[in-house]
């Protein structure tokens, strides 16, 4: 069963986490506009023998929406709290915003991390010196988003944002109650772009200091910006594995959970589970039940 608890961080803040299982600790960080619920399907597919912990970056702590100027180290503080709670070095999985955070953690505290999986990490600052075209594109999205927000046009701000990562027309297809609830939450988080454009913490030199094995995962149908970011990370971390998820865009934890779960397991531990069994996962409920543990997730 999944259980939610609140931890005290090393900097004296609080962070909520959801955990399930026992065994090898694996810590998951969600995207900048999301929640631990992004991992629900991945958790339901995960086999026995692992202790899974999903961090809630924006609840019960000094995350987005709290006065001040948060930095990646505010979110790294949350990871440190989980590591203390687990009492062991950890495998880190970071998606999107979470990917930028785990890169910071691995560079700053290498002894904390056994392995690292980054799923299209939004470490935008890395593009400034490495890919001018991609950097210009993401700066343009940021600046248009800010112009909309300054004018009170939250719908337009997130319509372009969601469509950028999911394809034209995606936001308009959401049911109206879902859009309204999403926009209400995002307004409490405010403007967090600068965290991902931090040239002091997200640097090429920092990537070269990562000592843990790094697994870079991207979708074949993702954006030019995300392809560029994955290429930069792969080029500069010392120990890189690379997986392309066929047909996936940026939101692959929600749209392609099965191939993503297989890729994550392959990168984390080659001995805990029979990879032949993992690769035979099918839609057949009886076979699926025999191969995978069915458990609630955040």
CATH architecture: 3-Layer(aba) Sandwich
Secondary structure category: alpha/beta
- Work out the helix count: 15
Helical content band? 40-55%
The CATH topology corresponds to: Rossmann fold
CATH class: Alpha Beta
Domain tally: 1
Radius of gyration: 18 Å
The counted number of beta strands is 8
Strand content: 15-25%
Poorly predicted runs of 5 or more residues: 61-65, 270-298
**Helix/strand order:** EEEHEHEHEHHHHHHHEHEHHHH
Trace the largest sheet across and list its strands: 1-2-4-3-5-6-7-8
Distance between the termini: 10 Å
- Under CATH, the homologous superfamily reads Alpha/Beta hydrolase fold, catalytic domain
Gross geometry: globular
pLDDT averaged residue by residue: 87
Structure description:
- It is built from 15 helices and eight strands.
- Strand 7 (214-219), helix 11 and strand 8 form a beta-alpha-beta unit.
- Helix 2 crosses helix 3 and helix 5 (132-150) packs antiparallel against helix 6 (154-166).
- By secondary structure, the protein is an alpha/beta fold.
- The protein has helices spanning 40-45, 72-86, 97-108, 127-130, 132-150, 154-166, 170-173, 176-189, 193-196, 204-208, 224-236, 252-255, 257-268, 275-279, 285-291, and strands at 3-8, 14-20, 24-29, 50-56, 90-95, 113-119, 214-219, 240-245.
- The protein has one domain (3-124, 198-291): Rossmann fold (3-Layer(aba) Sandwich).
- It has an eight-stranded mixed β-sheet with strand order 1-2-4-3-5-6-7-8, sandwiched between helices.
